[in-house]
Amino acid sequence: MSNFRTVTVKGRQFRVRAGDVLLDGALANGVEIPFDCRAGTCGTCMVHVSKGQTVCGETHTQGMIYACQARVVSDLDVEMEDVPEIDISKARLVGLREVAPDIMELMIAPEKSISYLPGQYFKFTFNGYPARAYSPTASFDGRIGGRVIHLNIKRVRGGRVTTALGSGIRPGHRLRIQGPYGHAFLRPGGTGRLILVGSGTGFAPIWAIAAMALREQRSRPMVIIAGAKKLPQLYMTPILAQLARLPNVTIIPTVEEGPINHPSIRTGRIEPHMPTLTASDVVYACGSPRMVSALAGMVDKAGATFYADPFDPAPPEAPSGLIGRIKTLVARRAPEPEPSRDSGKGREPSVDPFERALSLVPKDPIEDDLAPRRPEPRRSTAAERDHALSLVRERALGEQASLQERPRRAAGQMASGHV
Ligand SMILES: Cc1cc2nc3c(=O)[nH]c(=O)nc-3n(C[C@H](O)[C@H](O)[C@H](O)COP(=O)(O)OP(=O)(O)OC[C@H]3O[C@@H](n4cnc5c(N)ncnc54)[C@H](O)[C@@H]3O)c2cc1C
Ligand code: FES
Fold it and tell me: Which domain of life is it from (predicted)?
């Protein structure tokens, strides 16, 4: 038998040696498969094998493989989803504000319009700083796309980029945006129940997906789980309160570290609060890599569809010269840094987190086409908080039983249309 195999990607044919990495073979033959990490984590290179076999590079989605990891062992037919082309644009930071302790909202204006699908991410290189991946979100009032990109970014202790937000990086700062990348984007047309899970700022892409899904199919059953380490970091409360008004949406806020006095909020990690999954569910999980991999196991067991965007830290920069190499060795021996700055340490949050979150709700919190009816007249902040929490409580705690009884159908697969 010949050592070569024939691969067809989107109708284009080429030959590779048996055992070659699919992505390398495609690129060497001038066939573009988008990629980013080349490590089997970002999902950008995921393709569907409709005929033939590969080894390695399996994903949690049936029939899909990571082209950067998979080795060709037989003739192959490969299909790719339609995604916007990777592009580069110059941009400027036009807005920056703290929405919760150590969580910033950034508004970025690209020089030219850029296309992406909700749930995809870009690499942002602020002038003078290394590139970092961030996932655009919808604005707090549910708007997505347009001329400004919204980001939610968590400040990480010792982080090169995030500790500079508000000091070295201020409104007016110039940057470069490259992308979009990633595979955890909303597939339009699906009808299966959407389970959208975001831990910390993993809520950013989750909110983008939810806002677009509600715009496209207002009545699609949806469960949204938003987790935070500590109560003050549950920055998305205003959005959750608005979503809780929708009859098809169930909201489950979770906080890892208690004590929590709000009955609408569940304590502990996200995993135990997941609804019982079935094969027709479509699960999106973004944020903590630990949470994403725990959910992957649950999804596999249920046979559901899974799209994930783990917020893996950027790889260390290549050291230059002897001193750089020594620094890397020392860093490798240093104890693991804490995951994030403890916002409670040394400075008590002076404002009730819900007062703070709800004060950010604009007059018209969710666009007309997203909400089933206009929000009621604005209440005083305290009354508004109680009202918001009672809505979340009703949806989050009262509907557990009905969660598993809702009708479900299979999800659509192919993406189309840009934001
Ligand atoms: C696909 C993708 C999408 C992402 N989207 C977002 C987003 O929308 N919002 C957001 O806030 N972040 C997001 N991230 C994480 C982001 O890219 C950076 O890793 C993060 O902002 C830290 O950057 P830094 O330069 O401040 O820290 P670095 O200088 O890169 O890291 C400093 C130290 O902190 C550790 N570290 C880095 N990130 C974390 C973390 N999250 N938790 C614990 N330790 C960490 C590093 O290992 C290192 O030891 C995303 C990551 C990926 C891969
Ligand atoms: S390029 Fe293959 S998973 Fe990232």
Answer: Bacteria
CB of 35 within 8 A of CB of 86? no
Could you report how far apart the first and last alpha carbons of the chain are, in Å?
48
What spacing in Å lies between the alpha carbon of 311 and ligand 1's midpoint? 6
Q: pTM score > 0.85 for this model?
A: no
Q: Which CATH architecture has domain 194-312+347-403?
A: 3-Layer(aba) Sandwich (3.40)
Topology at the third CATH level for domain 87-181: Elongation Factor Tu (Ef-tu); domain 3 (2.40.30)
397 C-alpha vs ligand 2 centroid, how far in Å? 38
The CATH 2.40.30.10 domain(s) of the chain lie at 87-181
Atom of ligand 1 nearest to the CA of 336: 49
What spacing in Å lies between the alpha carbon of 165 and ligand 1's midpoint?
13
* Position in ligand 2 atom list of the atom nearest CA 38: 1
Contact 415, 81 (CB under 8 A): yes
Residues of the chain with CATH 3.10.20.30: 4-79
| CATH number 3.10.20.30 is the correct assignment for the domain at 4-79 | yes
Query: What is the C-alpha separation between 7 and 5, in angstroms, rounded?
Result: 6
Sequential pLDDT tens for the chain (419 residues)? 679 999 999 889 999 999 999 999 999 999 999 999 999 989 999 999 999 999 999 998 888 999 999 999 999 999 999 999 999 999 999 999 999 999 999 999 999 989 999 999 999 999 999 999 999 999 877 777 778 999 999 999 999 999 999 999 999 999 999 999 999 999 988 889 999 999 999 999 999 999 999 999 889 999 999 999 999 999 999 999 999 989 999 999 999 997 788 888 999 999 999 999 999 999 999 999 999 999 999 999 999 999 999 999 998 876 555 554 554 444 444 333 333 333 333 333 334 333 333 333 333 333 333 332 223 333 334 444 445 545 555 544 444 333 333 333 222 222 222 33
